[in-house]
Amino acid sequence: MAPPAGRSAISASPRVHALLARLHAASEAQEKSLSQIWFYLKRLISFYLFRTPWAASADDHMRDKFVALEEDKCHFMYLLARSSGALNIVEAGTSFGVSTIYLALAVGQNVADQRAQGKTVTGRVIATEKEPTKAARAREHWAEAGDEVAGVIELREGDLLETLKMDGMPEQVDFLLLDIWTPLALPTLKIIQPRLRKGAVVLADNTKMARPLYKEYLDYIHDPANSFKTTEVPYSGGLQMSVYLPDASV
């Protein structure tokens, strides 16, 4: 019998596997609730019909919601980060810190691999979260994950369009996850793009389900002048995977 999907995809201790399974189950239960489905439908209808922007009431509704990247997408993301040897990752939209654990596992293991080869390297996951209560929950989950992610994650609280411009950013970013309110996707990418190494991976979540909301972002990454090669991975809701290739022929 094949092992559970998480154990096949992710290198982690039984404690971390159990933590991730528990968090994904809680997130999935929220996402499948009628109230949450109705919330998303209202948001999409309001945007399609009236171009209604995100409101404070929506922030209030989402304050206690995981909105975590789905488990299968997290496995894919982790394996991409491992296979690319990513050392410096930016996560735009941390929420309760579930996807951050996967990214931190990948970075920590990539660092260990390179040090085993005699290289002197460090790595970080720059996580971002505007809501203080979510940041606190994320820190609790990372503490529960323990040494496997400790020391790898740097959480920047506040408006990410400001915190990602602050001192201390890595000179080179290997991987960018965009799992945020869609109008922030393109401004965030433009902040990080000058730091992207050639071959860096950019993932944006829910690009199929929320395609009209992502229009400016998708137009940008599909424009050859901006040096991305991109495809949509057919996970639920869509997952846009782009690779930064500034010297690629167009």
Automatic annotation (TrEMBL):
<protein>
    <recommendedName>
        <fullName>O-methyltransferase-like protein</fullName>
    </recommendedName>
</protein>
<dbReference type="InterPro" id="IPR002935">
    <property type="entry name" value="SAM_O-MeTrfase"/>
</dbReference>
<dbReference type="GO" id="GO:0032259">
    <property type="term" value="P:methylation"/>
</dbReference>
<dbReference type="GO" id="GO:0008171">
    <property type="term" value="F:O-methyltransferase activity"/>
</dbReference>
<dbReference type="Pfam" id="PF13578">
    <property type="entry name" value="Methyltransf_24"/>
</dbReference>
<keyword id="KW-0949">S-adenosyl-L-methionine</keyword>
<comment type="similarity">
    <text>Belongs to the class I-like SAM-binding methyltransferase superfamily. Cation-dependent O-methyltransferase family.</text>
</comment>
<keyword id="KW-0808">Transferase</keyword>
<keyword id="KW-0489">Methyltransferase</keyword>
<dbReference type="InterPro" id="IPR029063">
    <property type="entry name" value="SAM-dependent_MTases_sf"/>
</dbReference>
